[in-house]
Amino acid sequence: MTPRSAAPGSITVRVPAKVNVQLAVGAARPDGFHDLANVFLAVGLYDEVTATPADELRVTCAGPGADQVPLDRTNLAARAAEALAARYGRRADVHLHIAKDIPVAGGMAGGSADGAGALVACDALWGTGASRDELLDICAELGSDVPFSLVGGAALGTGRGEKLAELAVGGTFHWVFAVADGGLSTPAVYREFDRLTPDAPEPVASPALLDALRTGDPTALAGALTNDLQPAALSLFPALTDTLKAGTEAGALAGLVSGSGPTTAFLAKDAESAERVAAALRASGTCRTARVAVAPAPGATVV
Ligand SMILES: C[C@](O)(CO)[C@H](O)COP(=O)(O)OP(=O)(O)OC[C@H]1O[C@@H](n2ccc(N)nc2=O)[C@H](O)[C@@H]1O
Ligand SMILES: Nc1ncnc2c1ncn2[C@@H]1O[C@H](COP(=O)(O)OP(=O)(O)OP(=O)(O)O)[C@@H](O)[C@H]1O
């Protein structure tokens, strides 16, 4: 494929959002993180990160929710560029532009996508020749969800979610995402989980869920969707109960909170049903907007 560059000498990388089709959460570890059985599925909503040579590191962002994205060194895209530059003993002299389409603070790994995208873009721009394993190591340092943003498709994440085993997916799944008014902080949702779940068992991946992914059967997948963070997200954001009700009443096979929320995800039977559910959600007054997307989607890709 011929890369389409935004400007001469620049590299653009497209990175997908994710939904957790299973999120089994164990007890808090001594380091504050939680062991997970985290079944990630990449969905076709994308951010694009463009890296262009510059005098110094600079981040810009445009798109829905861009005003909530930090443009300083705390941005995961900036941190990714700095981590790669440090490893290869060079300056992070790059302008990173984020074209945002993944809901911000929505539990869909938008910031993680930008981290993975910036890493792949800078790697290509600088010609570091880093191996995929090296890039995945940097991703894991940046955040628990970042390795999956690089890999895409479907994967089981263990440890804090950063140790990935890729999974086979036997078909296309049609999703609807209801974007909430407002965001939820991931650490706050995990803290609420700890409060609500004093004796969390060891997290284990569900064989029925892995089977449903493998066969591509939406009804089987709908019956196996689980998110241990959902009670915590609903406790902090009770209005999401109304959104979940609106989506399932509109004909979704099932609905659940996406990751730490507050985006809610609905699995539909097919593309037409997904459009109907999205229209009903938009009309319901229980969310800011609704988006349809198919899964699985590829990981971070130079476009
Ligand atoms: C909810 C999920 O999105 C599901 O995929 C992830 O578990 C969160 O991943 P993330 O946003 O990349 O999280 P990180 O940046 O690694 O960690 C942010 C905070 O979330 C909490 N955290 C995250 C991952 C994990 N396995 N256990 C945790 O307790 C910790 O409080 C941590 O300080
Ligand atoms: N590139 C970025 N894009 C969006 N938010 C970022 C970025 N870098 C840092 N952040 C910060 O991270 C916070 C969480 O944003 P993000 O969109 O990643 O949430 P999320 O989708 O809920 O994450 P996750 O699903 O991985 O828990 C934001 O409120 C913002 O302050």
From TrEMBL:
This is 4-diphosphocytidyl-2-C-methyl-D-erythritol kinase. One of its GO terms (molecular function) is ATP binding. GO terms for biological process: isopentenyl diphosphate biosynthetic process, methylerythritol 4-phosphate pathway; terpenoid biosynthetic process. It comes from Streptomyces alboflavus. Residues 75-153 form the GHMP kinase N-terminal domain. InterPro entries: GHMP_kinase_C_dom, GHMP_kinase_C_sf, GHMP_kinase_N_dom, IspE, Ribosomal_Su5_D2-typ_SF, Ribsml_uS5_D2-typ_fold_subgr. It catalyses: 4-CDP-2-C-methyl-D-erythritol + ATP = 4-CDP-2-C-methyl-D-erythritol 2-phosphate + ADP + H(+). The active site is at K18, D145. The keyword Transport does not apply. Residues 210-285 form the GHMP kinase C-terminal domain. It comes from the Bacteria.
